[in-house]
Structures are given as structure tokens and as C-alpha cells.
Design goal:
8 helices; 231 residues; single chain; nine-stranded mixed β-sheet; alpha/beta
């Protein structure tokens, strides 16, 4: 039976008990997990990269000590070689442009120290929540491409990577109601899903059977691959 995990840091702690001390996150979003990391492991130094200008501006507003944010993509990391002990991509590799995924993984290898880790966490294209979100944002192709890019970099001659662990688990996702889902899932700052009235009504109809007086509860299946930079 697949484990239900409420805090993904528990998975990271199992796989990398002593992360860092220099950490980089590619596609950091609001850096929610990173903020929790710094609370759990004081002394970490974190750099978060984000291409969404709106979210990046929010990140720059009074960042906690030990955190800095840079507007950049994973395929062009503004850092010298071998600077980090841990790199994280949390539901972000599939957002890298398809033609740039291989370069992004090469860039991460470049900025990691030998022996450093890349923690790759990707949502699985399955489950009731996915059936709803694919009505307006079908990520089947890009999620498959992300896994294929990892497979390619591992199989390449003289690959800088070895895969040292793999985990599958479920994460709970809850919404107060459809309005909450609409705001959080359908209208992100980094993408325009072209939601018109007809599409919104279609998604609302698919969402409705999952609603109760306590809201709507789902689980999101996740797939983690831990790669290590070869010495």
C-alpha cells in the first residue's frame, strides 16, 4: 500500500539525513518547503530560482535569514561550478521547456559538488485530482518528458549521475470548496490556462462529486528520484 505523507520533508530526511549546507532549488515557487527546511535544519544556506516574475517579486519581500532568491531558470543557473550539496526540483522539472530539460539536468550536475544530491519530486499522472486538472491543463506529455529526461541523463555515456533511491507516496490535498480550487489551481501566476465560462463550468461539474460539508479531499500520487553527482 502506498504511504500517505503529509510533510514531504519527512521523505527528504529519510533519503538525505544531513542536507546541504548549501542548497539550491530550481523552480522554487513560494519556497514553502524550503522555509520549513531552514526551520528543521538551522544553518542551511538556500538559493531559490524562479522564472515567474510575479512570484519572484513576492519572494524578494523580506526573505528569512539564510535565503536568497534569483530570477533564473534551471537550464541557465547563475552560479559557479560545484557550489551546492543539495539541489531540489519539487514538481518543477515538468515545467522546464521540453527542449531545455536535458540542459537543465546538466546544469544541476555542474553546480553540485561531487557526491551532492538532486532530489526530484514529480506528480504522477493519475488519480481523481489529475482527472479534474487535466480538463484545463493536461500535463501528461510534459510529465512523461520529465521522466524521460532523467532516464536519458542516467543512461548517457559518462553520465555525471547515479540514481541512489526512489520513492512513491501519496500526499493529501484539500480544498474548502470549488472557489478555493479555482483560485489555487486554475489561475496560477505563472500560466494562463484560458479559463472561459464554459470551461470553468465543466471543471466545476467534475469537481462537485468530491465536495462534502468538510470540503473536497484528494490524494496526489508522487514519485521521487534521488540522484547523486558522481565523484
Amino acid at each position: 500500500m502506498t504511504r500517505l505523507i503529509t510533510d514531504e520533508l519527512d521523505i527528504l530526511a529519510e533519503l538525505v539525513p544531513a542536507p546541504g549546507p548549501q542548497v539550491i532549488e530550481l523552480g522554487c515557487g513560494a519556497a514553502r518547503v524550503a522555509r520549513q527546511m531552514l526551520a528543521r535544519w538551522p544553518g542551511l544556506s538556500y538559493m531559490g530560482l524562479e522564472v515567474d516574475a510575479i512570484q519572484h517579486a513576492r519572494n524578494l519581500q523580506d526573505p528569512p535569514a539564510g535565503m536568497r532568491f534569483v530570477a533564473a531558470g534551471a537550464q541557465d543557473i547563475p552560479s559557479a561550478d560545484a557550489q551546492f550539496g543539495l539541489a531540489m526540483m519539487l514538481k518543477s522539472l515538468h515545467h522546464v521547456p521540453l527542449a531545455a530539460m536535458d540542459k537543465a539536468l546538466a546544469e544541476v550536475a555542474r553546480v553540485l559538488r561531487p557526491g551532492g544530491y538532486l532530489y526530484l519530486s514529480e506528480p504522477v499522472y493519475a488519480g481523481p485530482l489529475n482527472e479534474i486538472t487535466r480538463l484545463y491543463n493536461d500535463e501528461g506529455a510534459v510529465r512523461a518528458a520529465a521522466q524521460a529526461a532523467v532516464d536519458r541523463t542516467l543512461a548517457a555515456p559518462a553520465s555525471p549521475w547515479q540514481q541512489v533511491a526512489e520513492q512513491r507516496f501519496d500526499m493529501p490535498v484539500e480544498f474548502k470548496d470549488f472557489a478555493d480550487f479555482d483560485q489555487r489551481m486554475m489561475r496560477p501566476t505563472f500560466a494562463d490556462h484560458h479559463i472561459d465560462d464554459a470551461l470553468q463550468a465543466r471543471v466545476a461539474a467534475a469537481f462537485a462529486p468530491h465536495c462534502t460539508a468538510q470540503g473536497a479531499r484528494f490524494v496526489r500520487p508522487m514519485h521521487v528520484r534521488l540522484l547523486q553527482r558522481k565523484s
